[in-house]
Amino acid sequence: MHSLFWLLSLWTLCLFWPRLQGKLIRIPIQFQASFVASRRQYRASRSSLLVKYNVAGGQDITSRTSGATETLDNRLNLEYAGPISIGTPGQPFNMLFDTGSANLWVPSAECSAKNLACQHHHRYNSSASSTYVPDGRRFAIAYGTGSLSGRLAQDTVSIAQLVVRNQTFGIATHEPGSTFVDTNFAGIVGLGFRAIAEQRIKPLFENMCEQHLVDECMFSFYLKRNGSERMGGELLFGGVDKTKFSGSLTYVPLTYARYWQFQLDGIELGGTIINKNRQAIADTGTALLAAPPREYLIINSLLGGLPTSDKEHLLNCSEIDKLPEIVFIIGGQRFGLQPRDYVRTVTNDDGSTICLSGFTLIEAEFWILGDVFIGRYYTAFDVGHTRIGFAPAA
Ligand SMILES: *[C@@H]1O[C@H](CO)[C@@H](O)[C@H](O)[C@H]1NC(C)=O
Ligand SMILES: *[C@@H]1O[C@H](CO)[C@@H](O)[C@H](O)[C@H]1NC(C)=O
Ligand SMILES: *[C@@H]1O[C@H](CO)[C@@H](O)[C@H](O)[C@H]1NC(C)=O
Ligand SMILES: *[C@@H]1O[C@H](CO)[C@@H](O)[C@H](O)[C@H]1NC(C)=O
């Protein structure tokens, strides 16, 4: 009788265990302790962003490489990264989870000893994985200082308890310049849609949903904006964590399922309407806020920023708290950022501390809302319903 009871319990457990496990998958996101907020880094992240969206910004790298050598230093000094493992047995990698791109890539064990970016990180060794399947195709992704290139592979990718089978990804044998040398991540997990993926490779989350590894085909980001904390936040697959935001999420449909692009009803600065009916892209792979030319000019002039030859705007550090709030109106709701959020306090080339406007220029018809925004607003990336939701982060 007893053994039957236990057998039944065990059977019930086996039935429901995978579902319980599959409910919400939490990925701890680390905040990079060694993050350097320097003016150089700020410029580098602007260049990276422009290359990523394939637009010039008044100071794109090609036009600047002639005179200034420093722009070749195009490091991606991002603050947030989290763990995944690839292959059987699993090979661990710290990754940047980037909603502004759609490919997954890691450094390859076959990269040359001279390639510093590759040597500085964990490398994927296909010979050491029993689940590796060769693909045969080559791949390349353009970055500011050149192309990241290598070949494609297929293997099992594990993220916390989620095991995604047959994932195609890039293994890089060449990483350009200094871009990835001292990043806290080895590679990138693109969380954008297949339409923007190189060679239209099926993105990780698409496989995850097709393989029914999550109850709901969505993921959410909670990024803490406090550099002193080791735990930088959480990426959640399969749903949202209501304890991490206040009120309810305001959802808006995606205008295009390529990037995480949606309608901005309006932008206001200190009560002045700057523009209406714009598009915006939520991008966890950048720290910046990028504005189209018109808004960029109006906002920086209203902030009293002193323009520099580099298209930066200097602000007086002792007057930051007097600056107005910027409000993005999304789905009829107001999402504000305080000056402490949008002003970048950085170390200048001479070692002094300066304050720069966080509104940078992008020669495009859309805004880019990076970690500055997502850090303030818990963001739900709902793949299944092609919509995005925001709520004030706890
Ligand atoms: C890759 O793994 C194989 C099998 O474990 C091993 O023999 C080889 O040395 C590894 N290669 C590198 C570059 O680590
Ligand atoms: C992965 O690919 C193998 C071989 O093509 C196939 O047998 C298996 O069903 C696939 N698994 C999933 C989860 O798609
Ligand atoms: C950051 O975190 C530390 C310790 O957790 C806390 O003392 C500090 O007040 C926080 N700073 C901000 C700006 O939230
Ligand atoms: C910055 O603001 C402070 C306090 O309002 C003022 O004393 C100082 O002169 C300003 N600095 C510059 C460079 O304008």
TrEMBL record:
Signal peptide region: 1-22
Pfam families, per database record: Asp (PF00026)
Superkingdom classification of source: Eukaryota
Matching InterPro entries: Aspartic_peptidase_A1, Aspartic_peptidase_AS, PEPTIDASE_A1, Peptidase_aspartic_dom_sf
Q: What molecular function terms (GO) are annotated for this protein?
A: aspartic-type endopeptidase activity
Here the disulfide bonds are: 111-118, 317-355
Where would I find the Peptidase A1 domain in this sequence? 80-391
GO BP annotations, alphabetical order? proteolysis
Signal among the record's keywords?
yes
Active site per the UniProt annotation: 98, 283
The answer to whether keyword Magnesium applies is: no
Q: Which PANTHER family match?
A: BETA-SITE APP-CLEAVING ENZYME, ISOFORM A-RELATED
Q: Which family does it belong to?
A: Belongs to the peptidase A1 family.
Protein name stated in the entry: Lysosomal aspartic protease-like
According to its UniProt entry, this protein's organism is Drosophila rhopaloa (Fruit fly)
Lineage summary:
Eukaryota, Metazoa, Ecdysozoa, Arthropoda, Hexapoda
Gene expressing this chain: LOC108042357
